[in-house]
Amino acid sequence: MQWKALALALLVERGAGQAMPMLRFQCSQLVVDRLDPLVNPGVVPSPHLHQIVGGNSFNASMDPKTHDLPSSSTCTSCTFSEDFSNYWTAVLYFRARNGTYKRVPQFVSEGLRADGGITVYYIPSPTEKEKVTAFKPGFRMLVGDATARAPSAARKVCHRCMPATGDNSNINCGAPDSQFLPKHDVPRRHPVDHMSHVAYPNSSYNDVMVGAYGTCPKSHPVKIPQVMYEVMWNTQMFNDKALWPEDGSQPFVWSTDDKSGYSQHGDYVFGWKDDSLQRAMDARCNGAVCGELEIQSSESAMKCTKSRTVQEDIDGWLTEIPGMDMRK
């Protein structure tokens, strides 16, 4: 089994017995680096490590007034070659009994091909009658709180212990998902907070589970695509109990130096070319095939990488998680 971390940028819904149309595609690893143009714009290095996917124009600043992702990028690590957006999350580490840390490797979500990275979902309106308005250039948002160490107001960020194959249960941060990291071993242009300009639909959790899409609150009347990230972490290499803390406590740590799991977060900068995302939402495309979009091969997507800006060891057995000295 493996761990599956879901970083949900907006509410995702699936009704009982119903599969809503949604783009589901892979974005291969672009770079793992200590940069964060949303929370720490221009800061090199940022306080903690992120894994980043998408367009290769990603950098520490990305000023929305001057940085146009489609024209600045020469490639994208995502399936759809018109998607130069950037998506990023925190990175997972294992803390061994002797106090050293090792980065947990990633693997691709079921049915897709890539070099780790993030599986991205875009969910349109459930019916053709409801209009979903695609994001505009300069749009950015994030969900979660990198400083959280206990349950907080952050919604739709969760973890799941995955079987080796065939997990078709909900993707809505309901049971068996949890905000905290599982406590057992696993066998095999906007407001500066980048949050208040978007909102969750007016739906209760029960409404969501029976498929109600929800209505927009009056404060946020424009219905936009719902976005979800799915990240797969392969923890099997750490199954040796001799590596675990002697008391058997949970040994996995986010790159925010957090063992609880509450600090996981997802960041997003919109970068689809022209009206490509709007066309896909209007067509209510499903899966990784969409007649409205240009598709590149997995091999081409995996070739789109960039060198790390912050040169430091991130993959060896480390005495500290990168950036830990900045947080002391």
Automatic annotation (TrEMBL):
Protein name (database record): DUF1996 domain-containing protein
Segments passing through the bilayer: none
Pfam family, one: DUF1996
Keywords: Signal
Annotated organism of origin: Xylaria grammica
Signal peptide: 1-19
Domain annotation DUF1996: ranges: 36-272
Top-level taxon of the source organism: Eukaryota
